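User: Hi! Is it possible to get a structure for several chains at once, not just one? Here's what I have:
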Amino acid sequence: MLVLSRKIGEEIKIGNLITVTILGYDRGVVRLGIQAPRDIQVHRKEIYDKIVTLNKISSQTEVDKFKNVVNKNNLNLNIKKK
Amino acid sequence: MDSENNVITINTHQFGEITIDIANIFLFPNGLLGFEELKKFILISDEETEPFKWLISVEEPSIGFPIISPFYIDFDYNIGKEIDLENNVLFVVVTLQDENKNISANLKAPIILNLQKMTGEQFLIPFEKYSTSHIISHSE
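Assistant: Yes, the chains can be modeled jointly so their relative placement is included. Here is the combined structure:
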C-alpha cells in the first residue's frame, strides 16, 4: 500500500481524473473531498461491502421459499392506492 | 441457441429453462455491486410473486435477484438525482431475512433500468436517508 502524508488543504491525484482533497481533521475524523467523473462511483467501504453481501444473498434466492413468504404474509405494500 | 429468431435459451436457477428475446436484454456496463463481471440481465415477471419481479443474469443464469419497485414501499422515494421516469424504471433488490420469514429491501442501492437504451445500473444513493435492509412488514 502506498502511504502518503498530507496537510489540510493538500490534494492527492489518482490517475488523471480523480482528485482527493484533505479538508479537515477533527477528533479522530478525517474529512475528504473527492472529485471524480460521474461514471466512477465513490462509496464508503463499509456500505459498499454491506450491499455486496446483500446482493450475494439475494442472488441465490430460492423461488419456492420466496413464493412462500409472498403468499403466506400479506405484505404491507402500497398496492391499493396504486 | 436460435440466432435467426434472435432468441436464446438460458437455464436459470429460479425458473429453469427460459427462452428470451435478445432485444429484451439490459446491458449493465458496470455490472451490479459484487457482480461487476456480469453485464447482461433480463427482467422476468412471475405471476405468483407479483408485484416482485426478477432480474436474472444472462451470462450466469444461476444468478437471479428478486426486485420490486420502491414506490410499493415508499410513495416519496427519491434517489436524489434527476431521472426521466418516462424512459427509466426503478427497482430495489430484496432479500429473504430471518430464516426466510421476512423480506428486506435495499432502498440504498436502487437499480435503474433505461427502457429506451436498454441499459441498467445499480446506483448507490450518496445521502443518509435510506436503509440497505428495510423490512417489508406484514400488514395486520
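DSSP finds two helices and three strands in chain A. Residues 65 and 71 of chain A are 10 Å apart (CA to CA).

User: Great, thank you!
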